[in-house]
From TrEMBL:
It is found in: Cytoplasm. Pfam families: MIOX (PF05153). One of its GO terms (biological process) is inositol catabolic process. Keywords: Cytoplasm, Iron, Metal-binding, Oxidoreductase. It comes from Xanthocytophaga flava. It comes from the Bacteria. This is Inositol oxygenase family protein. The lineage of its organism: Bacteria, Pseudomonadati, Bacteroidota, Cytophagia, Cytophagales. GO terms for molecular function: inositol oxygenase activity; iron ion binding. GO terms for cellular component: cytoplasm. Its cofactor is Fe cation.
Length: 292
């Protein structure tokens, strides 16, 4: 594994935020003024871009079909830890990068900003809950997983990598790209076989989906499972693997995405004041402890 990146893992969230900032650069808020976009461009200095490129180089090189299989076999046993959702939130927040307090928004704040924006728009409570927990799968980082196996755009494995995926050139180093089982348009899949039959690159999305699949309505599960699948929900690159039903459910994924990307507000939400509301909401849908 690349040394530069291993060293950076002492403060993983700074890089996770860099991934998220990069998403904003790729998909800027259409409602933002040109001036803000300009400020943003200045903010994304070349050093950050290099870190993000390196992140994707690792992600695209090592996320193979076999890697995903291995990670699923390990993490989908859910034998690592048992916690309430609140303990998991606290656990996740231990990762806050304090080297850059001005830009680091802790994970709880990102979750609350997302969910409060959903709530303000009058959406159903399960949608609010989905916003509140959509990134809980990032606890994978606390189990020692490298960032490229936790965050980043997700994409199907077992078939050809679309050139609509960010930094597609890095897939040249992925062994699946030269494996004839996996490097054709459909690879191991049938046309329109449905996304439930498609293995996605491993990360916080699939992990949390598997944890939540018995508890939340189907649109919520799609939002959790595919919120980082930008090459589909933004670029429409994998429709050939999807069913009509997938497309219908992706309307929810699309509805969710702006809340994830564009909900940063100048005044951070008051986590303490909001906690009772979210405690009730969590208790309505989820058991008191969850297996991680
Ligand atoms: Fe996420
Ligand atoms: Fe997020």
């Amino acid at each position: 594994m690349n040394q530069k990146f291993t060293e950076k893992e002492v403060s993983p969230l700074s890089s996770m935020e860099e991934w998220e900032d990069d998403l904003l650069k790729r998909y800027p808020d259409p409602e933002e003024s040109a001036k803000t976009k300009e400020e943003y461009r200045n903010y994304v200095d070349s050093e950050r871009v290099d870190t993000v490129r390196e992140f994707y180089r690792l992600n695209h090189t090592y996320q193979t079909y076999d890697f995903v299989k291995e990670k699923r076999a390990d993490f989908l046993k859910f034998d690592k830890r048992e916690m309430s959702l609140w303990e998991a939130v606290d656990f996740l927040n231990t990762l806050v990068d304090d080297s850059d307090p001005d830009t680091s928004l802790d994970q709880l704040q990102h979750l609350l900003q997302t969910s409060e924006a959903i709530r303000a728009d009058g959406h159903p409570d399960w949608f609010v809950l989905t916003g509140f927990m959509h990134d809980m799968g990032k606890v994978l980082c606390l189990f020692g997983e490298p960032q490229w196996a936790v965050v980043g755009d997700t994409f199907p494995v077992g078939c050809q990598h679309s050139d609509k995926i960010v930094y597609p050139e890095f897939f040249a180093a992925n062994p699946d790209s030269t494996d004839e089982r996996y490097n054709t348009k459909y690879g191991i899949y049938e046309p329109n076989c449905g996304l439930d039959n498609v293995r996605m690159s491993w990360g916080h999305d699939e992990y949390l989906y598997q944890m939540m699949k018995d508890y939340l309505p189907e649109p919520a599960l799609y939002m959790i499972r595919y919120h980082s699948f930008y090459s589909q929900h933004r670029e429409n690159a994998y429709s050939h693997l999807m069913t009509e039903h997938d497309h219908k459910m992706f309307e929810w994924v699309n509805k969710f995405n702006p809340y994830d990307l564009y909900s940063k507000v100048p005044v951070p939400p008051d986590a303490k004041a909001l906690r009772p509301y979210y405690e009730d909401l969590v208790a309505k849908y989820l058991p008191s402890t969850l297996k991680f």
